[in-house]
Amino acid sequence: MCAAGRRWGRRQRALLWAVLLAAWEAAWGQLRYSVPEEMPKGSFVGDVAKDLGTQLPAIHDRGLRIVSEGRTQYFALQEKTGHLVTAERIDREQLCENVQQCVLRCELIVEGEMKVYGMVVELIDINDNAPSFRKTVIELRMSEMTAPGARFHLPDAHDPDSGRNSLQSYELSGDEHFSLAVQAGPGGDQRPELVLAKALDREEAAFHELVLRASDGGDPALTGTARIRVTVLDANDNAPVFSQSEYTVRVPEDVPVGFVLVTVTATDADEGLNGHVKYSFKKITEKASQIFQMDAETGAITLNRSLNFEDGDSYELEVQAHDGGALFDTAKVVVAVTDVNDNIPEISVRSALSEISEDAPSGTTVALLHLRDRDSGANGEVRCSLDGDVPFRLEKSFDDYYSVVTARELDREQVSEYNVTVRAADGGSPALQSSAVLSLRVLDVNDNAPVFAQESYSARVAENNAAGALVLTVLARDADWGQNARVRYRLWEGRVRGAALSSYVSVQAETGALYALRSFDYEEVRELELWVLAEDGGSPALSSNVSVRLLIVDENDNAPQVLYPPPPRPAGAGSLSGALWSGVELAPRSSEPGALAAGSLTRWLVLAVAAVSCLFLGFLLLLLALRLRRWRREQLLAAASSGALRGVPVSHFVGIDGVRAFLQSYSHEVSLTADSRKSQLRFSGASCCDTLPVSVPARPPPDEPTPLLGDEDLA
Prior knowledge:
Elements: H1 2-21, E1 23-25, E2 30-36, E3 44-47, H2 48-52, H3 56-62, E4 64-68, E5 75-77, E6 83-86, H4 92-95, E7 102-110, E8 115-124, E9 132-133, E10 137-143, E11 151-153, E12 157-158, E13 167-173, E14 178-184, E15 190-196, E16 207-216, E17 223-233, E18 241-242, E19 246-252, E20 260-263, E21 266-267, E22 278-283, H5 286-291, E23 292-294, E24 300-303, E25 314-322, E26 328-338, E27 346-352, E28 355-357, E29 365-372, E30 382-386, E31 392-398, E32 401-406, E33 417-426, E34 433-443, E35 451-452, E36 456-462, E37 470-473, E38 476-477, E39 488-492, E40 495-496, E41 499-500, E42 505-507, E43 513-516, E44 527-535, E45 543-553, H6 600-644, E46 653-656, E47 659-662, E48 667-671, E49 680-684, H7 711-714
Parallel strand pairs: 2-8, 10-17, 19-26, 28-34, 36-45
Antiparallel strand pairs: 1-2, 3-6, 4-7, 5-6, 7-8, 9-12, 11-15, 13-16, 14-15, 16-17, 18-21, 20-24, 22-25, 23-24, 25-26, 27-29, 29-32, 30-33, 31-32, 33-34, 35-38, 37-43, 39-44, 40-41, 42-43, 44-45, 46-47, 48-49
């Protein structure tokens, strides 16, 4: 009970120390904690919520979870408290054999923010293991001729604890012929040796029983013991000697089971049984003893189980050769394991979205990946990429974490779903590859307005149609999806002849069918111009419109109506003197067939038409006479200017607007004949004065059209 109480007290002190050591390494984005080993499940490790500055209600909303490498999850996060606790009892010696500082690494994934934080938890050793010997009974053979002071190697004790809790000292008890000496090994370990303090005498004692005790530095100290049985033999002059004090071999990790790694040899100068050498492991770990096997007769060390560089890259073995007289020699064997590219890169999807809105901004994180290759060197260097032309890219996030983010804006109408292939390849030759597929559905955003199938619509509707008749159907499609693509139709309100448009036609909201609400009359409305609006179901809604023209087609639905003569008066309406037509026309007895009935109005109409016709005919005759008169004058003037005035000097004329006039007056005679070509104009040179008696109008150019009436005629 006292020992158990002290052990519980040590655990409580270690737990308090772990709480005090919890710290936030903001510069590296890591949380660091420490916890004693062997704590029960659910033990407190650290306050993650406090260290991240996260309120407790936000833990569930942000989606915090712990991810550890390997199959076993050693830690868990409590949603109610935000505490990091142990998920099971943790044995430090099982996880970190021969390692002074045992550290477990895991990641804290923030689902809501697509972020990752590294967490380092150091396992603090407790003294839960006592030193132990691989063999509890040690058999030694010594010749009675062995001189005092001779030393004999003893097997080491093993304590998997670390620090003060590991092996600290050895003690020997049982016989005055022997004492204990402890030597320091190359790695600082303690190696016990049995020293012969007093000469042996086989006749006095053929056997000696000793007890070797190993103790650790715990509080209280734990011990382990081994019995040593020394058999005294007759004289044996020579001990076996190894050919090398240290053997080193380098082998790749993929060597087959049964492969001979190295063969050690030792020789003994004695003859017979004293010269017969046998081999064995003197010092070997539990793990190495399952991997290596030694032939006692040949000294060949073979592979008993496959090597794995990732589990161990070097092993140190201590071998012993002893003869039949119990004399022996020891040697060191170092097996170095070289890496082979035998591990493909591992892609772990730590967090991923299954759907994303098409209006998500560029740089939105859609997945958080962890890449790992258990090989070393170039074989363990991983390069990752995305296959195909996709709107995504990879970004280094933390340590071996990568984020898959959007590289540009998405468009659901072009691609509604992506299967993004992430490919990882190591640096080996040949390189090993692996891949993972991320499925991502693009959510629709109302970014497309409805589009009509035609730029405009028209239809011909016969008048006198039935009310409710289908006129035409408009169709609009929306490239969006779901509710955003649901199209509804309605009329753009207007007025026709003072009445609302909706009283003439209506449109079915779901189908776009346009119906006539009344019977159309061509004589009242000959066409309708209207607009139909298509609106989607988004929020806010998007819309477009189209023009619709309805042409009303006339039908023969009206009988001819007599405007004149007026209809007869009803019977019994009384008589009005000359105000109403009697319904009877009188015609002379001598009227020819086809003649108009000779009413007073008819006569006046006939007279009016005849008068207008005569006036028009007289106007035409007058117009023709004036035209002929002007043409005759132009002919006479042309003849006079061409022949009769040739002898007049040029200086006697003045040109004004194409008209030549005499500067002096001449007496002249004119004789005209019916033939204009024989007309004569004679001038008298003596009779002249400074007057301008004659003016001849210029002849119009031949290419200009001659007006029907000249200016003089109009005057």
